[in-house]
Amino acid sequence: MSGYIGEFTALLFLSLALGLDAFSVSLGLGMQRLRLKRIALIGIVVGQFHVIMPFIGIILGRIISEQIGHLTTLAGGLLLIGIGAQIMFSAFNHQAKKIIQPIGGGLILLAFGLSIDSFSVGLSLGISGVKTIVALLLFGIISSILCWVGLLLGRKVRGFLGVYSELLGGSILIGFGFQLLFG
Fold first, then answer.
1. How many whole angstroms separate alpha carbon 177 and alpha carbon 61?
2. Is residue 95 over pLDDT 60?
3. Which residues, at least 6 apart from 95, have a Cβ–Cβ distance to it below 8 Å?
């Protein structure tokens, strides 16, 4: 029985660690003008990707080695840097339309970038043979909750920062992208 509790506790902490990136990026993203309906949808999609990506990683982890994990981290970091740079550029150029918004394809790209580290974790979990359903449910639920908290906090902070909120939000995305690449 203590083995199950230990494994659950480890998965819970791993879920929190994976969800913290969704929280920090959502904090920056929440500084944009987002409606509550959009915030709810973003959290759901990010949570779904935090289930799908590690599931794919678990399947592939049982088939291939861990060497692909470095490429996924590189792709996720570059994607977040690109989104952050675009947000900052649009803050300086008020006439520029935002290329990537958390709507449709932009939301899919954002959720993919946030969950790419979950894929790498899934690779290692697939090799270790962890309880797949429990891990995936925890990853999805925790990341959705942390994403919603970050978006709502960012929305509140936006009122205090005004015009500079987009610059701060973009810099948070860029900083997290660099942290993924070099951290």
1. 24
2. no
3. none
Distance CA 81, CA 178 (A): 7
How big is the CA angle at 133 (ends 130 and 136), to the nearest 5 degrees? 90
Please, which residues have CB within 8 angstroms of residue 142's CB and are 6 or more apart in sequence?
12, 15, 16, 18, 19, 50
pLDDT at 163 over 70: no
Could you give the C-alpha distances from 164 to 45, 84, 99, 158, 161, in angstroms and in order? 27, 14, 19, 8, 6
Q: Where are the alpha helices (DSSP H) in the chain?
A: 2-29, 36-61, 69-92, 105-128, 132-161, 165-182
Q: What would the two tokens of residue 67 be?
A: 């060497």
Instruction: Please give the mean pLDDT across all residues of the chain.
Output: 77
Boundaries of every domain in the chain: 2-182
63 neighbors 129 (Cβ within 8 angstroms): no
